[in-house]
Structures are given as structure tokens and as C-alpha cells.
Amino acid sequence: MIDNDILERVLAEGLRTGADFAEVFASDWRGTGVGLDDGKVEQLSTGRNRGAGIRVIAGETTGFAHTADLSEAGLMAAARVAAEAARQGGGGIKVVALTTQAARIVSPIKIDPSTIGKAAKVDLLRRVDDAARSAGGAITQVSAGYSDGRTRIVIANSDGLVARDERVRTLLRVSAVANGDAGMQTGFDSLGHTMGFELFDKVQVEDVARAAAGRALTKLKARPAPSGSLPVVIKAGSGGVLFHEACGHGLEADLVAKGASVYRGKVGELVASPLVTLVDDGTMTHEWGAIAIDDEGHPSQYNVLIENGILTDYMWDYLRARKEGRPQSGNGRRQSYKDLPMVRMTNTYVLNGEENPADIIKDTAHGVYVAHLGGGSVNTATGDFVFGMTEAYLIENGEITEPLREGNLIGNGPQVLRDIDRLGNDFAMGNPGTCGKDGQGVPVGDGQPTLRVKSMTIGGTAS
Amino acid sequence: MSSPDRSAELLVIAERVVAMAAPGEQVEAYVSRGLSTEIRVYQGEVEHFVSAQSESIGIRVIRDGRTGTSSCGTLDASEIAEVLAEARDNLGYGEPDEWAGLAEPDGVAVVPQSLWNDSLERTTTQRKIELAKSLEKLTLAGDARIRVDDSNYSDAAGEAAVATTTGIRVAGRENGCYLSVGTLADDGNETQTGFGFAVGRNVDELDIERAAREAVDRATRLLGATKPDSRRVTVVLDPFVTAQFLSIIGGTLNGESVVKGRSLFAHRMGETVANTLLTLVDDPTNPLAYTATDIDGEGLAARRNVLIQDGVLSKFVQSSYSARRMGLPTTGNGSRGGSGARCLALQILPGTRSQAEIVAGIDDGILIQQVQGLHSGVNSVSGDFSTGAAGLLIKNGTLGAPVREFTIASTLQRMLLDIAEVGGDLEWLPMSATGVSLVIHDVTMSGA
Fold it and tell me: Could you give the residue ranges of the DSSP H alpha helices within A349-412?
């Protein structure tokens, strides 16, 4: 995309006002999106977005400018703006010599989606529509989306790093509406991986469609969720977002450094049930949050955050690692070339426990079984979080019984981590997610085995 | 001194694309360019300074009821030709939709808005940095228990133009600035968070004192909060909370959702859907609204629409597509690129009493000052809602102890009917809905 000699000159321009670090992040994204709604393939859209963000750090100040003009003149102009923004006085000329890093492949791509005809992508959605509507006569509406994107990236910085990467992601989303006597209900499911079109050789899109339709149909018979505190059993692969919200965000070093995390100063302490070992793993091949290098050029890593309940480390980007004089952890990510990198999660998951999941349900006299979760959010400073149950059932006398209508679960992160009292041996990854922070969204994955929290507040309406 | 309005240049680009339409084709081009600044201050120093420039073009082509779109993040002539070719190619894969089509000029006059302020352009970088620094300082001075995790100044200027083969030709520009501060309050046992903000078309309109005061208040008032017991209560929603609910309710009063069988109000036109106290309007022509605008995303005049009149459902907002499909006139609520209809500036017509007067009349209730997880807790198709909340207990007409870590739940349908009073404290907020205190009976609170 951009030659090393141009990168070197642009970085030198960034350092001209006396800054101590300069970085170029350039990306070129091409993607296709198809939407089906109301029985029709509505529109097929394609897009291209390329440009570069230039970051210059002088002392405590970061200057950042971006441009859609990837010519040397365009990059130089952006570098001057960034350098001016970060200016701390001084000045001088520094020479940057780049060393290209060996290419690293975490998620090998077999079929680049851009080589697949648009008709094949449209066909996937027709199959989804058929399968969802065939799932039951009460299904009255289906919408589905297919999207793929390929991003080529080059990152270079004044420490001499230059790294290149290519990322391919493919995503299918299905949402169904069922209509019954008590009104409408919705069901959703999705499938997304850091892989090419071969994704659909492995998974039948009909299964995704039926899962979405099934959720909507199940809820037609649902009763209002309980109101109050109860034990909650979370099915494998459906509750990783709990850990993402309840503690993941609080382990991001930028929030910790500003004292905006309940986990500040807790490394080495017991912060969770000893059953819990929590990992953030950018190297997990083909998962939605997998990356070969982070958006600062650092190789992705397998980072243990909590081991047997003890907090072992936070997640780090360049800036926070530099301030603390420690290595980065491959968690510096950004939404696009228009954004500054921050500490972000990749694939965050809880390792397997030892129990048979059926025993966990059997030993729960009265509680809620959560089979699918929607989104959530957390206040990292207090640890208070919420997330939505999009498929849940009552547990009565050790058995899963009636389906429940939607409601939020609410809790406090540190408390819930301590309250995990059962952990299954059936680990599974969950749906692809987009994690939002400071206005930027990045793809993330999560996962966990079946587990039980001994008490959580369920925000339903039934007493 | 005023900087030249260059949106006319964008209109030329858009018209050039439209002129390339082949016989039988409808073509729409949406061209935009933006410039923004974002300054973050931490502990008296600039933590980051972002200067951003962007441009983009989106092209929609419709032929024989089939639609194709394509977009690109640059305005290079060679790229634009490629975008048009892609959009044309893409339409071959869509299925014919007899209602597909671009908006047609409908003769409704544009209500001009003053969306541009020259003085913002002349504001120096130094002044912007000083604003963020003084907001941080002022906030810290507000209370000894307060820390500030970031203090931000940002501004944005955007120019845009839309041209279509159906005869729409519009161009305009707008700018504005924004201050925000995030706070943490510590009392030795726990930490709570808050935020404050100020918006304006120029920096002199920014109410920095109020932003600092609210950021301090939001964080400190929750210190010592406990988890309440589960029960049914009367809630008073703070204006900021009401506005968030309005945005969700607005999403259900949408012609696109109606024609696609996703609106819980689909067959309720003319029926009572809310307490008679409620009149809900969408009025982007009101210059006080943060999202005031003169045109919608399809280039038609923005207009005032009454959606619920005295509790009776009276109108859905429409894009040109949903209006055509329902056999109704459009309401000027189309989104850019034909991607649906949406409310632009929602407002509940206010009542008369202040929040303090309202609270004085409540024996047992909760003032809800913040909600968390609305996006995951509200299903706008079924109407079920459940959201995390925090606020103050109301006992015998007075505000009492802070409470947090509980949810409030009901359905949107019930909640609208259970409205017991609309406050007189209308508040213009930096979002597409306006705030006002709202009293709702019989809401389920889940806590301990």
C-alpha cells in the first residue's frame, strides 16, 4: 500500500517538532453488504474506505490527524498537522529506519470473499429467509444481512517497526419476528468469523436461521420474567459477554491508570471465585476478535488475566505500556484509520471447569437458565453492569421449564465473579460481538462453559 | 469575515453523477465533507488533540424496482466513476420492489435554519484548549471528593449536498461545538461516576458552569447508594432519562416498521395508545432542537409532525419509500441513502409543574436519574423493557436516600398508558429527543 521509504519520510516529518514518537496507520477496506427484509433482497452495497491516521506523541500529549489521501503529499500534510497538534517546543531532525517484520498469519483465509460472485451471497440470504419462515407458521417477518470485508493494513512507527497485515471477516445476521396471541416476539442469531467464504462450507446458514426463528417462537409462549434475586445458570457460549462487561473492561490499563476501574491496585489479589480463569486471546484462530497484530503493529497474544480467581495482569497498549515501562500485550486496537488506538479486548473467555453441565441445572432448585444473551454495558468505576436475556427459562426443582420474556440482568462485576459457584466442562464460544468504547467499535469474541452465579438480580415484572 | 460556503462545490459533484444516469434509471448522489477537532485534557495537560478531515460519496441507483448502492471515502473523480459503476452492478442482484424509488419534490417549503456560525471557525486552538482546561478545573473545584477522568472539547463542521434524477437539489452546511467532562467521586468506601456536557453553535453558547456543576452532582449524589427492595412503584423520570425513552418510542412510530410488520403500533392508528396527557411531536424545524435541520436525508423539507395527540396515535414518520407503500404523503423523515425513516427531533408537549412540585406530591416513589443498558433491555417489537437504573427514593414528598443496582421494567405499551403527569421543565439535550420530567405509575422495580 505504501512503500517503506515514504513511511520513513512521513515519520520523520511527524518528529520534526521534537516529538518522541510518530506512527502511521494506513488501511484500505473493501467490503460487500447484502440486506434481505420482508422477503426481498433489498439492496446490495459495496464500499471502499482507505486512508491513514498519523499519531505523534510528545511528552504527555498525543497529536492525531487522518487523511483519505494516501499520496506522499497527503501523508506529509497529515503528519504536519499531527506534529503541530502534539507540539511541545524543541525541534530537530530525527532519522527513522524501518525494519519490516515477518508476516504473521493467525487466521489463514481459504476463499477471499471478493472472489465470490455477488449472486452467491444473495443466495445465502434467500436460503436463510426460506429456512426461517419454514420454522413455524407464526414467523411473520425475517430480516437478514450478509457482509464481508477485507482490510489491508500497514503500520509503521519511529521505533523502526513496520508491520503489514490483511484481515478478512465474514458475517451473517438473522432476525425473525413471530406473531402470536400475546403480541410479537423477536429472535436473533448470528455467525461471524475471521475467515473467508469457506465459513459457509462449515456451517449451514439454515441452522442460523432456525436458531433465530426458534427464539422468536419460543418466546410466544413465554411468561414475564421474575423480578428479584435468584440463582442464574448460563449456558455454555451464551454468557461470555458477562465477563466482557463484568470485568474485561475494568482490566483495560487505560481505565485502570485513571482510577476508573474497580480492579485498580488488585493484581495478585483474589478477585473471583477460584473456579475462574479468564483469558484474553487475540491468537484464537478464526474467532471474531482474532488478529495477527494489533492496530499498533504488536503481535497478538494469549494473555491470562485472572488465574484460579487471582488477578494476574491487565491488558496494555503502546501508550500505557510505555508509561509503566513494561511490554505491550497486543491489545492496542482502533475502529479505523480515523481513530486513535486504545486498550481493547480481543477474544475474552473463561476456561473449562470440571462439572457436567446437567448436574449444575439438576442442583438448582429455583432459578433462571439463560440460553442466549443480548448486549450489555458496564460502569467500570463501580463495576455495575447490565445485560439483556434474549432467551431464558425458569428452573424449577432442578429442571428447565417455562420460557421467559425478555428482561435485563443486573449485577456488580466483582460481586458476580465471587458468586460463581459452579463451572461446567462444556466450553463454547458465543456470537460475534462489537465492543464499543469511547465511540469506537471493534470486533470481539467471548466464550465460557455452563456456569452458575448463586444470585443475580433479574429485572422482570413478575413477582 | 466569513468562510465561503463550499457546499455548492459538492452539489456540482452530485449533479455531475446524476447527469450520468442512463435512460430508465433513477440516480441519487449524496456528497459530504467534514472537518472536526477533538481535544482531551487530563490533569491540566492536553492528552490528545485530534484533527480529522473526511469526505464521502454515496450513490443509489434504481432501475425496474431494483436498488443498488455503493459508497466511497474520497471524492476523486476516478473513484466516483467506479462507485457509480458498482452501484449499477449491485442493483442487478436486488429483487424488484414495486415501491422502490427516490423521493420526489413535494412542494413543502423548507423552513430555513441557522445551522452555521462563522465565529466558531475563527475560534483559536488555544481558546479551545483553554475551554477544556477550565472545565476540568471548575469541575474539580466543585467538590473535594471529585476526580476528573477526562475533560473534552470537540467541534465539527460539515457540508453536504444531495442531487437526484427526480429533481432534488439541495446543499448546506452546519457546525457546532461540544464540551464534556467525566467524573469520579470517592468517599473512601466506594467510587461513583458522573458526567456533564454543554453544546452550542459557537463557544460563547457553551454553559461551562452548568456542565461542571452537573458532572459533580451526578457522581456525588450516588455515593452511599444502596440496592432497594423489589416492588411496584411510581417513578419520576429525570428529563435526560425521558429523552432516552422517547428515542425508543420514536423508533416504534415509524412507517418502515409498520409496513414490515415490526411496529407494535401497526394497527393502532386513531386509537388511544397513551394517557391523554401525552402529545408527542417530531419537530426538526424548531431551532431550539439540537438536531434541528431544514432537510431530511432524502433532500425533502423537514417538517413538524404530531405523532400522538392527547394520547391518540395520529401519525407515523415516513420515508418516501414507506409513504409510497402505505399510500400516504411522506413526512420528511427519510434517512440518507434510502435506509429507512426516523424521528429527527422528538418532543413531548410540556405540562406546567416543576420537578420539585411534582416530587412534593408523591408519597412513595423513585426519581430515576440514570438508566443503564437501554439498548439491551428494550425490545421495540414486543415492547418489553427492563433497564438498569439509579436515582433517589421519594418519601412523603421529599427526596431521600440514593439507590442503585436495580432495574425498572414494564412494557412500552403500558408505560405510555401509565403516564400520570408531564412536567413543565422542558430541556433541550444534545440528542434527537427533548427531555421533560415524566411521572409513570406502577413500574416494577427489581432489586434485592
Answer: 357-362
